């Protein structure tokens, strides 16, 4: 059974940085894509950043130039480095992994709160 466990959320002042980590276990074949989504109160869940097993990355326009995603294929981990955080980045951040058969897996989420 695949499990994704996030860590690294918390409270930070605007302009600060946070680093989110996610470790996936239970997969025999690895993941075609790993990344992060977020959901703010009253809003839909949205893609933040993703990285394929080949190293191709994709970012939401709102986080480009501020966030960086990286992954370790051998260990099935993915990291989101968040810099220059803004209050509008406040949300629950979810780790996501998708395998080559189209199955999607989610972590339980970690709260990021950015104060003024």
Explain this structure to me?
The chain is mostly beta strands and 116 residues long. 0% of the residues lie in helices and 54% in strands. Strands 2, 4, 5, 6, 9, 10 and 11 form a seven-stranded mixed β-sheet that branches. Strands 1-3-8-7 form a four-stranded antiparallel β-sheet, with no helix packed on it. The termini are far apart.
Supply database-style keywords.
mainly beta, 0% helix, four-stranded antiparallel beta sheet, 116 residues
Topology summary:
Layout lengths: L2 E5 L2 E4 L4 E8 L7 E7 L6 E7 L4 E3 L7 E6 L4 E6 L8 E8 L5 E3 L3 E6 L1
Parallel strand pairs: 2-11
Antiparallel strand pairs: 1-3, 3-8, 4-5, 4-9, 5-6, 7-8, 9-10, 9-11
Largest sheet: 7 strands, mixed
- Averaging pLDDT over every residue, what do you get? 96
Q: What's the alpha carbon Rg, rounded to whole Å?
A: 13 Å
| Helix run count | 0
Q: Can you tell me the overall shape?
A: globular
| Percent helix | under 10%
Task: Calculate the terminal CA-CA distance, rounded to whole Å.
Answer: 40 Å
Tell me the β content: over 45%
Structural class: mainly beta
Report the count of strand segments.
11
Query: Any low-confidence stretches, pLDDT <50, length ≥5?
Result: none
Order of helices and strands: EEEEEEEEEEE
Summarize the structure.
With 116 residues, the protein is mainly β.
